[in-house]
Design a protein that fits this description.
Two copies of one chain form a homodimer.
Chain A (H helix, E strand, L loop, with lengths): L2 H25 L6 H4 L1 H5 L19 H7 L3 H8 L1 H33 L31 H36 L8 E5 L9 H12 L4 E8 L2 H23 L6 E3 L9 E3 H21 L4 E9 L2 H9 L10 E4 L15 H21 L1 H11 L1 H7 L4 H5 L1 H9 L1 H10 L2 H11 L5 H25 L4 H9 L4 H11 L1 H21 L1 H14 L13 H18 L6 H22 L12 H25 L3 H7 L1 H16 L1 H5 L3 H12 L4 H11 L23 H5 L1
Antiparallel strand pairs in A: 1-5, 1-6, 2-5, 3-4
Helix pairs in contact in A: 1-16, 1-22, 4-25, 5-6, 6-7, 6-24, 6-25, 7-26, 7-28, 9-10, 12-18, 13-17, 13-19, 17-22, 18-19, 19-24, 21-26, 22-24, 22-25, 24-25, 24-26, 26-27, 26-28
Chain lengths: 714, 714
């Protein structure tokens, strides 16, 4: 890619971003869009849906930027929770890293690269210069200037490690402080026990009761056996949807429209009263439901066991319970509203096999995904495209078209394909047997991250058949030199990727095009009637990997093609404001992990650093500077040792709360008169909502909506 | 190697074994040797050192075999402890595995191999037949007979996995039963806490006291702060040796010999009274010692913390204590007499760095050791030896010499070099920061095992420079074919190795040549005076790797060269009797790990199986049977999955006793009136013996020996 193509791409995307921002600042002020742009505030009752039309509201303003900027981190913490703060810390951390990188890259490395003669172009024609003249490829082979790159790699690694350490330290202390300031919560006192050994004499509930009164007499409080309620849940959702239809019908239809023919498409057959029809059906469903609930629902050999103190729960969690380690497996209980197990399985062996199957599925998905990536990869090589599709020759001759195709189209297509991945990974993670949304999302986050790294980075860099790539990793000795040859040659693709995919994804994140269209059509057809709407939950599993992947690109290309760095800095600056805005207005988190997403960020950063080092080793080898190449070898080793130290120093805090914290919190509670009430609630906290009594038909006359809400809130 | 050379070697070694056995059965009946052949019984007072000379005692008998055979496993368990039983189970397990292997190998595989024509020898001259005609090398390329080997590999793997599972099951249940039947022991109630944060206001003891009374108020009992007593220990051992000399002098010397010149070699200078001289010196040392003891010995920020119940100790052990995971690091306390820390370090970072250094040291030792191995390797190739040492040509022409050299010498030299390894590994493990003999020995056992596998197996198989071998493992794809080519060609070396090294090591184990010589000279020069002698501790760290390595050879060569199997079976039969005899008569274990050595055996067996599979994959490839080669690929994967399942099913039992066991034992103790006394003992159990008051000088007059004994027994 030449400089002018890059500038075209930057121009297009900057224009698009500005357009989106302007549209956003106008649209968000329209009262009708408040559910699209501030659903969180609506749900909390802070934003009013109705408002007068105002001419001022048609003017684009930047007030939202100010409002997103203003809240301090403590305010964010109190309103949004620790997870959101940790999410924002990714941006803060990345901004620090890349601010330093830009200074080094732009003021030291780019001039050094540009003054090289390896690619032997003349200095005159700047716009038509290949981007490669700003990259390390332009430095002469064997040149001593490469020692500048060598030093830059060392200094940069040191700075990143220092920042990683201080950030880990900061977030782990935040996590402890968050725990100290938390109210007593059901999940702090509860564990989930699986693989309960069933004897023929006693049922599951009795077995649990006797086991825990026997071995935890002083701390055991109560338990709730898990039941298979798939069928019940199906019935309930049927009833709910019928109820909704009915309520809608009652509100909208007049007496004249009440009748409809019961045949095909409501056109043939005899006339029936629609309202009556639905009421009848709802009653049938409810009868069915009650019958199912009163009949014994099948018990699953798993139970939520609650304890009187946090320490009690921790003891039962950390020390193996039974002599057979595959029985009485304890696991931290999720928050009651975080419980989610479409694929819940109690058998140890079954879960273990499912785990293996999911790994296999992930790997095959990753490999199969290479097919679209390879096709996209072809688009950056126009000549190849012309061979494949000869009829395009005429169009591709046009400069604008070819620039758009090389600069914009590939990453857009990749983007589209990639948007399918997070839901698939969520599905795989839930098959794996995690018991809560938070765990599923965390696991999916890791999966999506490695998927992205493999399929976007490695697949593009090591273009070629999938088999060839696997072969590369079977010959570890050659990896550095292969990477060093391949990675710099894809620099222009990734610069374009940051500008297009990165910037566009941010502005589309802000603009929320699809929800906007949905809301528009909903209002057009369904009217403004329904009060119900979902506040979207924070998409950690798709957001974090994207942000981290750009970090990986930045770190990897830091000394290879520093031209990427300013664009990344812009990305992170915009991302900081936009995600703050979205977290404050749009998303609400359904759960709180207490910052457990941070270790993923840390690991990804370490991986990026080591990848950079490996490429550096190969690069200095290619540039015939064997001394620099060997002197770089300690760098990845030191980085991995640093990582190992961090794992020992910080990771345990993200897994377990220490005795010190638990006992302090338990002592606080002892003096709290509200604990009696809390224990009562705790006993019922993990009851399955599907087993609560439901009453739809009676509510129809009243203005009440969603009769299940009270039971789901327990 | 040809068949007759092998038979020569078998003959020599069988003769040697019989000779050793005969000598042993005579020598062990001599009253003077009872300390060499039954020190354990002497120490327990079961064997009398004195006895009348008896003509019958000069006749070789096999009574010791009967006596070693007789005791049942339960008797072994009650007299020797679980570790010894687990040690014997290695033989039982190996016997089962190789009994099956011999049946398959000798009756199916050897005939199939022998009927092959690949090596195209004639059938007539059996003694001069190469051993290779009994191995898979003799099977024709592409022959369908190889499917027999393929089936054998599958069936054998299945049988071994079944045996592994049932053995793991058996030993883990034994371990739990052993725990149930154990008396209250100090180490069950105690943990060692390191990295105690020191504040300037309080000393270490106060910090520990306040921390545990704060966070474990109901279970905390007492603590003992660790002190740096290196200097004291030096003084004590000085005093002890002086005391011993003095006591010896008093007993042996008459008044005439009391004087000696104090100059060079006792020849020049003025005459002094030797007794007076030593007495004076001893008193000085004692004064010094007492002064050191009364002055504050430097505290180390680590402490043994004892609890009132086993569950209390487990809670403090398993749940992280402090907010900083690198502080208050808890570790299971070893048995009081198992405590050993020449390199004890409390700092988290220091221990961590030492760990890394030890890993580096192990790797370099392993690589440097290749030098002697490569030289030994040369001995099996006589022609090469003739080139190196031309003057040997004449001798090497003699048939006997060449047979001895190829059949016997190489493994003897290797043996000698190898005997140096266990002490080195013990040293490295103790540098690593383990706090007890048992942990050091367990860690050394693993180290010695991998060292043996690498340096005996791989170094011999992949003969060549060290660099070449490392290169092999950098190209994983080629490993199967390289191994498949190299491993069978070394079959004759390893058959000879089993016969020489294996059988000889067993008979020398029985004969205890070096202790016998030592004891002889001791009696000759020192007389029978000293009552002190050390009962040797069971050498798990050198014995187990040796036994396991033969298992690895057997499994690897099972389908390649089944001729090795009968010799291995003989090895295990002899080993079973000899080690039983030695455990009953010679060794006494200084500690009891409760069977923690078994996981090493299991892992080694799994590694052997996978190695066999990898070789099989390469072998079928070389023999142009690609279908068999690909169909073998699932085998290692299934084996590794089986191993993973075993890790989850059994390994936790070897690390932690579950709540169920702990609570049951604690309940039993509650009703025990002796617990009060036990708690008192517990408080003092981990006091440093170097800080106990010592009194040598007063004892000299009395008949008491070793005044330190009582303090060391606490």
């Amino acid at each position: 890619m030449i400089l002018s193509a890059l500038l075209t791409s930057v121009g297009i995307n900057l224009g698009l971003c500005l357009l989106f921002f302007t549209l956003y600042s106008i649209l968000r002020k329209q009262p009708g869009n408040v559910r699209v742009y501030a659903p969180r505030l609506v749900a909390e009752g802070e934003a009013q849906r109705t408002g007068h039309f105002n001419f001022e509201s048609l003017l684009p303003t930047a007030g939202w930027v100010r409002r997103a900027w203003q809240p301090s981190e403590d305010q964010l913490l109190s309103t949004l929770g620790l997870d959101a703060v940790v999410f924002m810390r990714i941006f803060v951390f990345s901004l620090r890293v890349f601010a330093f990188a830009v200074v080094v890259g732009v003021f030291i490395l780019i001039p050094v690269n540009y003054l090289g003669n390896q690619l032997s172009e003349d200095f005159s024609d700047l716009p038509n210069k290949s981007l490669d003249s700003f990259s390390i490829s332009n430095v002469d082979v064997g040149s001593n200037r490469l020692w500048i790159h060598f030093c830059a790699a060392y200094v940069f690694t040191g700075v990143v490690c220092y920042l990683l350490y201080s950030e880990y330290f900061y977030i782990s202390s935040k996590r402890v402080a968050y725990f100290y300031s938390s109210k007593p919560q059901a999940h702090q006192f509860t564990i989930l026990v699986r693989s309960i050994p069933i004897s023929p004499e006693r049922n599951c509930s009795e077995t649990v009761e006797s086991f825990f009164t026997e071995y935890h007499p002083s701390t055991y409080l109560s338990h709730t056996v898990v039941r298979r309620t798939n069928k019940l849940q199906g019935l309930i959702s049927d009833a709910e949807s019928t109820y909704k239809k009915l309520a809608n019908l009652k509100l909208t239809t007049q007496s004249g429209q009440r009748f409809r023919r019961d045949g095909f498409l409501g056109i043939f057959g005899r006339k029936i009263d629609v309202l009556d029809h639905y009421e009848k059906r709802l009653e049938d469903l409810e009868d069915n439901l009650r019958m199912e609930q009163t009949s014994l629902v099948k018990e699953v050999p798993a139970a939520f066991v609650s304890f009187k103190s946090r320490l009690g729960a921790a003891i039962a969690l950390h020390i193996p319970q039974g002599i057979n380690p595959t029985q009485w497996i304890a696991e931290r209980a999720p928050e009651p509203n975080d419980v989610h197990w479409p694929f819940f399985s109690t058998s140890f062996l079954k879960r273990w096999i499912f785990n293996i199957l999911v790994v296999v599925a992930c790997v095959s998905l990753t490999i199969l995904f290479l097919i679209p990536v390879v096709i996209v990869q072809g688009l950056t090589h126009l000549d190849q495209l012309e061979i494949w599709f000869p009829f395009l020759k005429g169009i591709l001759k046009l400069a604008v078209v070819s620039q758009v195709i090389t600069g914009y189209l590939p990453s857009l297509i990749l983007q589209l394909f990639l948007s399918l991945v997070p839901p698939i990974m969520i599905m795989l993670s839930s098959v794996q047997g995690y018991i809560s949304f938070s765990q599923i999302e965390k696991s999916a986050c890791t999966k999506v991250l490695w998927f992205t790294v493999w399929n976007i980075f490695f697949a593009n860099v090591l273009s070629g058949s999938a088999l060839y790539q696997v072969n590369v990793f079977l010959e570890p000795k050659k990896i550095p030199s292969i990477l060093a040859e391949a990675v710099p040659s894809q620099a222009s693709f990734f610069i374009a990727y940051v500008v297009t995919s990165g910037w566009t994804s941010l502005s589309s994140e802000l603009f929320r095009l699809i929800p906007l269209i949905c809301s528009f059509f909903k209002r057009l057809f369904a009217g403004e009637s329904s009060d119900e709407f979902d506040v979207p939950s924070t998409p950690y599993h798709s957001g974090i990997p994207k942000i981290l992947f750009f970090g990986l690109l930045g770190v990897t290309y830091f000394f290879l093609a520093p031209l990427i760095l300013p664009f990344l800095l812009v990305y992170y600056c915009m991302g900081y404001i936009i995600y703050r805005n979205q977290l404050l207005n749009v998303y609400s988190s359904k759960y709180e992990t207490g910052g457990k997403f941070w270790p993923i960020v840390h690991n990804s950063m370490i991986f990026s650093l080591v990848l950079m080092h490996v490429i550096a080793i190969g690069m200095f080898g290619l540039k015939k500077l064997p001394l620099a190449s060997s002197l770089t070898i300690p760098l990845p080793i030191l980085t991995l040792l640093f990582n190992e130290y961090c794992r020992q120093r910080f990771l345990p805090i993200f897994k377990v709360y220490p005795v010190e914290c638990l006992v302090k919190k338990d002592r606080e509670d002892q003096n709290d008169p509200a604990m009696g009430e809390f224990y009562e609630k705790l006993t019922a906290a993990y009851r399955d909502p599907a087993l609560e009594p439901v009453q739809f038909s009676r509510n129809i006359g009243d203005g009440h909506n969603s009769p299940l809400l009270h039971s789901a809130e327990v």
